[in-house]
Write a structure and sequence with these properties.
- The protein is mostly helical.
- It contains one helix and no strands.
């Protein structure tokens, strides 16, 4: 970065000029756009959704099972007996 006072060419990461010592104006090297923010959010949410399904598949044997007698509609071979 060129010093505005003495025109000395400093390093890009320099905070002060090496010859005259004035503080150099800070320039942010990376300015993320709205598109970048949306992409980052989409990546994070996508990762979380995929992680949810992967964990659901991996942890399926360890999850608490719903008792079969309170969910008869989940059994396809069950025969619901009618009273009377
Ligand atoms: Zn300078």
């Amino acid at each position: 970065m060129k010093c505005p006072k003495c025109a000395f060419e400093n390093k890009e990461t320099a905070i002060k000029c090496t010859t005259c010592g004035i503080e150099l104006p800070t320039v942010s090297l990376w300015k993320p756009t709205w598109r970048w923010h949306l992409t980052a959010l989409a990546a994070i949410y996508g990762f979380l959704i995929v992680l949810f399904f992967v964990l659901n598949i991996v942890l399926k044997p360890y999850l608490r099972q719903i008792p079969k007698d309170i969910t008869p509609w989940l059994k396809d071979t069950v025969k619901i007996e009618k009273v009377g």
